[in-house]
Design brief:
- By secondary structure, this protein is of the alpha/beta class.
- 15% of the residues lie in helices and 25% in strands.
- It contains two helices and 21 strands.
- The protein has helices at 2-36, 249-254; strands spanning 58-61, 64-69, 76-78, 91-93, 98-101, 115-117, 122-123, 139-141, 148-149, 163-165, 170-173, 187-189, 194-198, 211-213, 218-222, 235-237, 242-244, 247-248, 260-262, 268-270, 273-274.
- The strands form five sheets. Strands 1-2-4-6-8-10-12-14-16 form a nine-stranded mixed β-sheet, with helices on one face.
- A hairpin with a 5-residue loop joins strand 19 and strand 20 (268-270).
- The protein is elongated, with a radius of gyration of 23 Å.
């Protein structure tokens, strides 16, 4: 009997030891986050003597940190690279703070991540390519930072992505071909950036799209008639770009500003509408 019980006790002890080790490692990462982002001046401070699940904005399940939501909490400084070792994290929301520096390059290590919201900060640099390796990512929200560069060529690998919101940054260049493979996308907000090039007819592939906002960029060429295939589209604003040519009455009415564009010299024009 003892021979049977002993292995069971050892297995339980080993399991508890691993769990405790994981918890200790994740706790150290959170303490690092607290230290480097001015935790003593946070709006909602942590009492580090309390268990992790008592810390503001932290959700722990089965002794694993699954959510960090420190929105609007007066975080300053840089996002510590150590945060990318939280492999069980499903939500990271550090929006509406005063964070600066770059998004950690190896953020793609966080394979469980579903929501990444770093909007309304002072982040610089570009979108790390590794973000495109997050198989469960549903929301990528980076609005109102100082981010630049082009979208990663592999962005189409984010097959679960429903919300892509990058407005009011300095992104540039054309939308990569793989972008039109984001077939789960429901909301796309790219307004007030420096995107260029033509909008591909492949935009019609985004069948679930409900909100499309490309306002105030430098997209050019014909407005794709394939936009009419987007039967779920409820809101659209593609005005104040360099689009030219004729548009259908249906698309004109759907656009918030009725297809008001800029020409090459910066004058405001209205695209001619095909009646009927």
């Amino acid at each position: 009997m003892l021979n049977k019980i002993a292995p069971t006790i050892l297995a339980i002890f080993f399991s508890l030891s691993i769990s405790a080790a994981i918890s200790k490692a994740e706790k150290d990462v959170l303490i690092k986050l607290n230290q480097v982002t001015g935790g003593s001046k946070w709006t909602n401070k942590w009492d580090l003597s309390q268990p992790m699940n008592k810390w503001y904005g932290i959700k722990v399940v089965d002794d694993k940190v699954v959510s960090i939501n420190l929105k609007n909490n007066n975080l300053t400084g840089r996002i510590p690279v150590e945060i990318t070792t939280l492999l069980n994290l499903q939500e990271l929301n550090l929006s509406t703070n005063l964070l600066n520096g770059e998004i950690p390059l190896n953020i793609g290590n966080m394979k469980a991540l579903q929501i990444l919201d770093l909007s309304f900060n002072r982040l610089t640099g570009f979108i790390p390519v590794s973000i495109c390796t997050l198989p469960n990512l549903q929301a990528l929200v980076l609005d109102r930072n100082i981010l630049s560069g082009e979208l990663p060529q592999q962005i189409g690998k984010l097959t679960m992505l429903e919300n892509l919101s990058l407005y009011e940054n300095s992104f540039q260049g054309q939308l990569p071909a793989s972008f039109y493979e984001l077939k789960s996308l429901k909301s796309l907000s790219l307004y007030t950036n420096r995107f260029t090039g033509k909008l591909s007819p492949a935009i019609g592939n985004l069948q679930l799209l409900e909100n499309l906002n490309l306002f105030d960029n430098d997209f050019k060429g014909q407005v794709p008639i394939e936009l009419e295939k987007l039967t779920h589209l409820k809101k659209m604003n593609i005005s104040y770009n360099l689009f030219s040519g004729l548009v259908s009455n249906k698309l004109s009415l759907l656009d918030k500003l009725n297809m008001t564009m800029r020409n090459e010299v910066g004058n405001v024009i209205s695209l001619p509408v095909i009646k009927g």
